[in-house]
Structures are given as C-alpha cells and as structure tokens.
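input
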Amino acid sequence: MGNDLDREPPEADPVTRRLAERLAALRTERGWSLDELARLAGVSRSTLSRLERAEISPTAALLGRLCTAHGRTMSRLLAEVETEPPQLVRAADQAVWQDPEAGFTRRSVSPPHPGLRGEVVHGELRPGADLAYQDPPVAGLEQHVWVLDGTLELTVDGTRHRLAAGDCLRFRLWGPTRFRCPGPEPVRYAVLVVLP
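output
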C-alpha cells in the first residue's frame, strides 16, 4: 500500500480542481493556516498546499483525515464539489472515486443533500486491500455495513468483525475503523451512512 498519502494524477481533472477549491475554501472559512490544518489532520503542510492547488489527487487516507478535520463525511465533501444533486441518479451517472494504489473503489449511490441525513455508498476492495481511518469524520456517525459479495474484516473501535456475503453490521463511529479484504475474492459492500 505504501506510506504516501498522495499520488500524482495524470492531469488535474475537473473534480480534482473543484475538490481543491472546496478544501481551500473550508480551511479559509475556519480561519486556519496551512500549518494549523496540517497539525489538526496529521498531514504535511506541503501536501496540503499541493492539494489545494490541484497538483495532486487525494488518496482515501488523505481525504479521510481532511474530512475528520472538517467534520464532514467523505460523501458530503464530494457532493459539495458537485452541482445540486438530482433526486434520481442512474447507475451510469453515479459518482465513482478510486484509489488504485490502495485497491479501493467508492461509488456514491445516493448523493447526499445538505438537508438530508442519510446516504448509501457502495465500496469495493481488492484482495489484500487494507484501509484504516484514525478518527470518524463526524463523531457518533451511524453506519450499516452490508456485505454483498466476498469477505470483509471490519474493525470498529478495536473490535474485529469478519463479515461474509449477506452479513450486516450496524454501529456508531466514535473511534478508529479499518476495512480489510482478506481475499481470495474482492469484497463488495454497501454502507448506509446516517448523520447524528
């Protein structure tokens, strides 16, 4: 998986540019310097600077740390860089975000809306993929993780759960989480996210 929290994109696509602008705006709204945000998120100042200039595309780990610092779910942050979400989103039009290095693909099945508290996300991890999040993006966030295919090892607040196809785990996020695909097949799962 590597230790780098960022990777070079082939070129800055429109979503990367809008995400960079939104992250810079969030930091400015709070009156934080790059140094303050770097300390809060545990990310280097230079990485944040490059991210806000759309010189790099964030990995899942980096985006997770920034969402935690800003008190937002990843879906909400990604929705904030989109236009007003429609009520109906066809499968072909659902936003898909990938972190190829980590082996993670994330699809926003139901785009979040500022006035709504729930959303559905689809995740897929390749065999051996291992994603760890230090803190919840929003304390007390409710999640229902439903495994569709494969096996998922999900650790919530230090307790490891092995979920097979059809299993569903419901919990509130107060501490670290870890999503791991032990293989030999990829794992596909749905996450219902409910803001507190």
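quick obs: The first helix runs from residue 14 to 29.
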